[in-house]
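Lay summary. Proteins are chains of building blocks that fold into shapes, and those shapes determine what they do. In this project we predict the shape from the chain. Here is one chain we studied, written as its sequence of building blocks.
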Amino acid sequence: MGEEHKAALAKGKSEAAKVRKYLKALEAGQPGGAARAKVLEQRIERLRDDIANEDNLLRRVKLIQKRFDTEDKLKDVDTSIDFDALEADFIGVVDSYSERNGISYHTWREVGVPARALKAAGIKRTRRI
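And here is the predicted shape, written in a compact code that computers can read:
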């Protein structure tokens, strides 16, 4: 195997790793982990206020359950993930990766990649490979 072939394989593996990490973060709902955590914390506070002010016992039970569910979501938020860096890596390789693997704009959108990321990568909406 020649050096050029080895370099191409290494490039493909590197690109695939960047795409995989980004897609996993998207799937886990991690974009803006810190911002998402703050939104969930605010929601929990509102629910606590609603619970304290609710006179109807059945509604109070439902609100308490919503608070528990939201607290569980908050525990699952990983604020250590630098989503912006993952997205920048993805944007840097997705065009080449798409060309090599025959993946269209519409496929990326179907798996949840935001249109703005694809636009930043130069992948056109009408592009069908």
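What the prediction tells us: The helical segments are 3-27, 33-53, 57-76, 83-101, 105-110, 115-121.
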